[in-house]
Design brief:
A 6-stranded mixed β-sheet has the order 1-2-11-10-8-9, with helices on both faces. Strands 4-3-5-6-7 form a 5-stranded parallel β-sheet. Helix content is 47%, strand content 13%. The chain is built from 16 helices and 11 strands.
């Protein structure tokens, strides 16, 4: 077998020639091409409009093979990798239940569901013995961004809770105060979410919440009965004064942006109930199985990863546009920005040496319909080529009051992708602008679990190719440390 260096050198030499050939022929001749589609139970990827062919995929797969991807995937699912988020998806019937840490994780999930039941059925009450009506979630980054995605996606059809929810992360407090003005203090409960429990911005919002409760008559001695916390730093939470029975723990080896599967997903469990939360985990588990067992040519996360690697490291396209054509996915782009750019935006590899490639595309985008009348002009005729991912949901909610997805929307997605591909040379549109279409059959807890796990595995595959650790964020931590040094005396005693 060729060495990794030889394989990369050979592919790099081919890249320029291949690109020129693909620019002239590839996209125009392959629109549409059913051979360039891969799928799972809920998701289909059509990449027939990308600057990539089977020769390139085979070459990239060979490089990943040299990097021992299969062994590292096995490490990921066994818990040997510095991440445990996939273990939560195993279920208690899984094969890892005899390990001490998995038993502890089971207990954490059980306690999370007990907390949800107590909040929903009135066992947890406000200081006037009022039933809780509003739950405010306060967190930053991985503690809040994935939750916003799943709530927007599932609340229309799958909300079983009678509670009202709010999510807040900006320490200026403006949005939080605006929201609290519509709430009764005695019926409002707060969930503070922080893996490290060391994020200064979070404590400003925590202080704001306490002052609001005190101003509306809550006695100081029972103030923290209106707060729960989700964290891996139980010791710090207890020192801060949180009630032990209202502390939900997550393992230290579960990264914040991968923690939605743990007790950090309490807002989702509260929104859709225990059974549907289980289906969410089952969807992710199904994608885990697909990723670990499916050959590369039909492996959904792997193909997505190889396309991104090819576009970024070999074709030198610095950005990646993501547009969605379903309003339930309005929070998809911020989620992708965090999972991909925080995981992959690194120039230092695992061996503490500089990486040899450009890593992580700059992810941007939003609503497709808004984009068509804003930045799509740049996609068609701009001086930079911007690879684009179109996300669509083929079927809306089964509830009768919601319309089904119109044929117009489905055809529009393909019209936009084809327009980028073929252009209109007579009018100065060269075409050959690469794109993929990611189609979800419908939005459900299961399909959303598949989607989010797919993105996690895509990122993991890219990290193996680039030889970087996708589970840390040293730049983010440096910013936290510097901020904490400057503000530790501002926000008061913790």
């Amino acid at each position: 077998m060729k060495t990794e260096e030889k394989l990369i050198s050979d592919l790099s030499k081919k890249a320029s020639h291949t690109v020129e050939k693909l620019k002239k022929h590839q996209i125009k001749t392959l629109v549409p091409n059913e051979k360039q589609c891969v799928d799972s139970d809920s998701i289909t990827l059509d990449y027939s409009r990308q600057f990539i062919n089977q020769e390139v995929i085979n070459a990239l797969t060979s490089i990943i093979g040299v990097k021992n991807l299969k062994e590292k995937v096995a490490d990921l699912f066994s818990g040997r990798e510095m991440a445990l988020h996939t273990v939560f998806r195993e279920g208690r019937e899984g094969g890892l239940r005899d390990n001490g840490f998995t038993i502890e994780m089971d207990q954490q999930i059980i306690k999370m569901h007990e907390f949800c039941d107590n909040l929903e059925n009135g066992e947890i009450r406000g200081w006037k013995n009022s039933r809780i009506k509003n739950v405010i979630f306060i967190g930053l980054g991985g503690s809040i961004i994935p939750q916003k995605l799943v709530h927007k996606a599932l609340r229309n059809e799958y909300q079983s809770s009678t509670l009202k929810f709010g999510f807040f992360s900006n320490p200026d407090g403006v949005e939080l105060c605006d929201h609290l003005a519509k709430c009764d203090a005695e019926s409002t409960f707060f969930v503070i979410q922080s893996k490290s429990f060391e994020t200064p911005e979070l404590f400003f919002l925590f202080d704001c919440s306490k002052k609001w409760l005190l101003a509306h008559g809550c006695e100081k001695k029972i103030l923290l009965s209106h707060f729960a916390v989700v964290t891996s730093n139980r010791k710090k939470a207890i020192e801060t004064g949180f009630l032990k029975e209202l502390i939900l723990e997550i393992p230290d080896k579960v990264g914040g942006r991968f923690s939605i599967w743990s007790a950090m997903g309490v807002s989702l469990a509260l929104l859709i109930g225990k059974a549907n939360f289980g289906k969410f985990l089952l969807g992710a588990k199904n994608m885990d199985r697909h990723f670990s067992e499916t050959e590369a040519c039909q492996n959904l996360p792997m193909i997505m990863a190889l396309i991104s690697i090819w576009n970024r490291s070999f074709l030198n396209f610095p950005t990646q546009l993501v547009v969605n054509y379903s309003s339930v996915l309005d929070n998809l782009v911020p989620y992708l920005q965090q999972v991909e750019m925080e995981s992959l935006g690194k120039s230092i590899g695992k061996a503490n040496s500089r990486v040899a490639y450009a890593t992580s595309s700059v992810i941007w985008g939003g609503s497709g319909y808004d984009g068509q009348h804003a930045y799509f002009q740049l996609l068609h005729q701009g001086t930079d080529i911007v690879p684009t991912d179109f996300f669509e949901v083929l079927q809306n909610s089964s509830k009768k009051h919601l319309p089904t997805v119109s044929l117009y929307t489905k055809e529009n997605v393909r019209a936009q992708a084809n327009a980028l591909a073929v252009g209109s040379p007579r009018e100065g549109f060269d075409g050959n602008r690469p794109s993929s279409i990611v189609s979800l059959k419908r939005i459900s807890p299961f399909s959303l679990g598949e989607l989010m796990a797919m993105i996690e595995h895509k990122v993991f595959t890219q990290s193996i190719f680039w030889n970087i650790n996708c589970f840390d964020q040293p730049g983010v931590e440096l910013g936290k440390q510097l901020l904490f040094t400057k503000t530790k005396n501002i926000s008061g005693k913790r």
